[in-house]
Amino acid sequence: MLLWSLVSTHVWGPGSVLLILVFLLRLSVRLWYKCHLWDLQHCCTDLTGKTAVVTGATSGIGKAVSQELARRGARVILACRNRERGQWALAEIQAASKDACLLLGEVDLSSMASIRSFAQWLLQECPEIHLLVNNAAVCGLPKKLTPEGLDLTFATNYVGPFLLTNLLQGALQRAGSARVVNVSSFMHTSGYIDEEHLTGAGRPLTFNQNYYCSKLLLTSFTGELARRLQGTGVTVNSVHPGVVYTKIMNQFPWSYRFLFWLSSFFIKDPQQGANPILYVSLAKELDGISGKYFSSSCVITLPHKAAQDPHVAQSLWNASVKLTHLNKAD
Ligand SMILES: NC(=O)c1ccc[n+]([C@@H]2O[C@H](COP(=O)([O-])OP(=O)(O)OC[C@H]3O[C@@H](n4cnc5c(N)ncnc54)[C@H](OP(=O)(O)O)[C@@H]3O)[C@@H](O)[C@H]2O)c1
């Protein structure tokens, strides 16, 4: 009895207070997001007859985005690097909405050869593409070169989306009205632009700066592509989803992952993280809006200064064309 009263006062007492506090905090975070997220339920955009391509649809934000697009009637191409994980995601989305029209496509965005063969297949399957969400990315990887001589992080997060979008440009334009959504990160503001990074050279990078810099390149590319596609009916924007509990930090040391797990009670879940991306993909009021960077609150925000500079963007574009051997025949 004495032991029980000791435990209940000294352990269960403070323990339950802590649990209640965590619960209340979690509840207020949920309520806050409910009030501050874009009102998806009131968006009446119907995607019946439209084709959407989502890269990195096996998990996290990409899967949540694909699910909502499919629910709205789009034919969704789940562009995944791993067939098995892709099939799992497809089955899960199909189970959630029985009428979903889904197609699995295999692409490793760190490989230019894989992107070219995926694009070739995709253009045969879908001559018109109404929405391309460049969502796939890696984070926390050390410097490593791909067999094609690119830095793995820059290849996946920037060169891949650059090449894929360019290869699909014809199909996007044929759709009459189409959107490209590049999933960036607010951490791009901690990056800087050095084209040499693409091939693993350039100024040294501190821990995870390769991720920040690659997202800055993606944001700069957004502006340049928007300028080039003016008047074609294709708009291009980038967006920060917010801090979202996904497997994005799986490559980090365990201490970081543990802190991320602890924070998972207070940050967005993948559905909430998908919200700003769905806003940029679906909202009618964004018709014709192009070359912008959206914050996680769905507000047009100025990106890093380097991403606003058209000269920097043009130079990056030229370097990327050279690197990917993109030519007029593509
Ligand atoms: N989570 C956040 O807090 C946060 C914050 C800011 C921005 N973002 C951005 O949000 C996007 C989605 O991330 P997430 O949080 O949902 O992370 P995630 O759960 O790790 O999803 C990343 C997706 O990218 C795919 N992927 C990685 N490398 C690939 C490659 N070489 N080829 C094809 N697919 C590849 C992964 O496929 P596998 O299943 O095969 O690994 C996975 O489907 C990313 O662009 C990320 O930078 C996330």
Automatic annotation (TrEMBL):
<protein>
    <submittedName>
        <fullName>Retinol dehydrogenase 11-like isoform X1</fullName>
    </submittedName>
</protein>
<dbReference type="GO" id="GO:0016491">
    <property type="term" value="F:oxidoreductase activity"/>
</dbReference>
<dbReference type="Pfam" id="PF00106">
    <property type="entry name" value="adh_short"/>
</dbReference>
<comment type="similarity">
    <text>Belongs to the short-chain dehydrogenases/reductases (SDR) family.</text>
</comment>
<keyword id="KW-0560">Oxidoreductase</keyword>
<dbReference type="InterPro" id="IPR002347">
    <property type="entry name" value="SDR_fam"/>
</dbReference>
<keyword id="KW-1133">Transmembrane helix</keyword>
<keyword id="KW-0812">Transmembrane</keyword>
<keyword id="KW-0472">Membrane</keyword>
<feature type="transmembrane region" description="Helical">
    <location>
        <begin position="12"/>
        <end position="33"/>
    </location>
</feature>
<dbReference type="InterPro" id="IPR036291">
    <property type="entry name" value="NAD(P)-bd_dom_sf"/>
</dbReference>
